[in-house]
Task: inverse folding
């Protein structure tokens, strides 16, 4: 089976190499049809948990090292007390890879020969998964979307690609797996591997097997997520602008909010007001 | 010539009408792959690149909006932000985003041309699938765009993307000088985007704005350049909210200094009202 997969992959690669060299037809029939609008599917709770098969928070049972488990638990305590924990998204800092793959807001996938683009409404995140055969750059400018290289596989040997295999590096922090604040290591060396493919019986369901390798983990952590395609022929796309009407204000290490009356308010009991020494 | 253009357009339309998941022939479209940046000069990235920033733009504003523009310029000259909300990480919106002060990428598919702009991570979708204008569209900073391809020289290949954008959310301005749009949100932007005839690494965009704050439609010609030798450009991520030290409390703008303390942005600016803090009331 494996030899057949490899030989089909080579045959396809050859055909497309010839095609790409002279900018002739890109045959979308060779690629899965992932057009349209996708949203997250399934999950044991309504909350968008990283592992959709487990409840939110500590019950995600992330395989964290003792040090990062302590960070995680302290973050949960802070959230329970009304704080934001370690999740910076309240400041409109993007949720980053791999969390953006929760697709709590719609996503679109555009497949081209050299790059597969994934466009997420949330934080207007754009992922480029380069499938042009490039090697990993020696230096990657870190970003919340990370730097992704992928390749297509024809796993069933029918002459059509069906699986996009991608690897992402260079993910900027701080970031977490979901809003419970499961942390990544501060060294920003996480590697995220994905296998993305259509459901075998329902082309309007997409699966992503996502494995994270990170120094805050004791072992690689794999979750299986799914997405459903909405049926609208002309889907409605919204624009997510976090900074619009964001009432959180950070002054130094303190988080405040601006109340409906336009005045600054504390976010916890006995919080000190900002130091106003620079005002006359 | 017009007949020849029409026949060419019909031929191309027929070719794509039978595209029922069959091959997308990229040779029928211009090659706009790669990384584009604004071409030409223009200190301050003015909307009309042929004229200086600010009053020199000679925007054909109505008297009301000319007064708003001038008040905004005075505020900027005094150290304020004027009417431009982008300092608060509000996206610059169409058409200003097409100044392309940061790189842009264009991806052409049969149904949609995607314009991906690094600035504020703006994504434009220009729908070329023949759809009608929807009755109800939520305004957005990118607006809602419908376009069509034209083969203007009758050579059997599309060369010009003609697009119209409506439902642009405000407040927004043409450039950082704060030339304002009408607050009715009714602006229409029309573009004709085409490659330079002599240099395929230059793209031109004739952009016409029709807006109730203008006395007449206002057309500017902008250009973009591509490094044709760079097959693997570097893309950066623009995250305005990261380390943005502007803080808005009510109607006042402040900044957070390097020492993490709140600071005024103009002389004599009052500090924020701390009535909601127990400690401040002692």
Result:
């Amino acid at each position: 089976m494996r030899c057949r997969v490899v030989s089909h992959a080579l045959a396809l690669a050859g055909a497309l190499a010839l095609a790409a060299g002279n900018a002739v037809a890109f045959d979308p029939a060779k690629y899965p049809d992932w057009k349209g609008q996708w949203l997250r599917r399934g999950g044991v709770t309504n909350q968008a948990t990283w592992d959709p098969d487990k409840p939110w928070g500590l019950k995600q049972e992330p395989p964290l090292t003792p040090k990062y488990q302590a960070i995680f638990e302290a973050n949960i305590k802070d959230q329970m007390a009304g704080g934001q924990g370690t999740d910076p998204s309240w400041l409109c800092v993007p949720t980053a890879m791999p969390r953006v793959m929760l697709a709590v807001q719609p996503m679109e996938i555009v497949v081209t020969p050299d790059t597969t683009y994934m466009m997420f409404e949330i934080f207007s995140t754009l992922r480029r998964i380069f499938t042009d055969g490039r090697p990993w750059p020696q230096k990657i400018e870190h970003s919340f979307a990370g730097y992704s290289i992928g390749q297509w596989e024809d796993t069933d040997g029918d002459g059509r690609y069906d699986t996009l295999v991608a690897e992402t590096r260079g993910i900027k922090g701080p970031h977490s797996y979901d809003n419970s604040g499961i942390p990544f290591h501060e060294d920003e060396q996480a590697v995220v591997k994905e296998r993305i493919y259509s459901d075998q019986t329902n082309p309007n369901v997409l699966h992503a097997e996502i494995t994270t390798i990170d120094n805050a983990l004791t072992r690689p952590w794999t979750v299986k997520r799914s997405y459903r395609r909405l049926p609208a022929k002309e889907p409605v796309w919204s624009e997510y602008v976090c900074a619009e009407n964001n009432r959180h204000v950070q002054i130094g290490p303190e988080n405040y909010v601006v109340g409906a009356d336009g005045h600054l308010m504390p976010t916890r009991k006995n919080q000190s007001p900002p130091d106003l020494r620079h005002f006359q | 010539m017009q007949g020849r253009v029409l026949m060419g357009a019909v031929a191309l339309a027929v070719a794509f009408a039978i595209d029922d998941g069959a091959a997308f022939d990229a040779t029928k479209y211009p090659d706009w792959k790669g990384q584009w940046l604004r071409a030409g000069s223009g200190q301050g990235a003015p909307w009309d690149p042929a004229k200086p920033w600010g009053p020199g733009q000679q925007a054909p504003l109505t008297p009301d909006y000319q007064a708003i523009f001038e008040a905004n310029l005075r505020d900027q000259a005094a150290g304020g932000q004027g009417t431009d909300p982008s300092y608060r990480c509000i996206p610059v919106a169409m058409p200003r985003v097409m100044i392309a002060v940061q790189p842009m990428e264009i991806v052409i598919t049969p149904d949609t041309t995607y314009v991906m702009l690094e600035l504020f991570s703006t994504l434009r979708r220009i729908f070329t699938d023949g759809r009608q204008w929807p009755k109800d569209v939520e305004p957005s900073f990118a607006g809602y765009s419908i376009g069509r391809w034209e083969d203007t020289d009758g050579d059997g290949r599309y060369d010009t993307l003609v697009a119209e954008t409506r439902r642009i959310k405000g407040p927004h301005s043409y450039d950082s000088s704060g030339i304002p749009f009408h607050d009715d949100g009714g602006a229409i932007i029309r573009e004709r985007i085409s490659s330079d005839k002599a240099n395929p690494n230059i793209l031109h965009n004739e952009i016409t704005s029709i807006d109730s704050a203008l006395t007449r439609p206002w057309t500017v010609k902008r250009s973009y350049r591509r490094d044709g030798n760079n097959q693997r450009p570097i893309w950066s991520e623009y995250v305005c909210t990261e380390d943005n030290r502007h803080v808005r409390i009510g109607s006042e703008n402040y900044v957070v200094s390097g020492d993490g303390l709140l600071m005024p942005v103009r002389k004599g600016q009052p500090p924020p009202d701390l009535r909601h803090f127990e400690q401040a009331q002692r």
Q: What stands out?
A: The helical segments of chain A are 2-21, 66-80. The CA atoms of residues 119 and 206 of chain A lie 15 Å apart. The two ends of chain A are 77 Å apart (CA to CA).
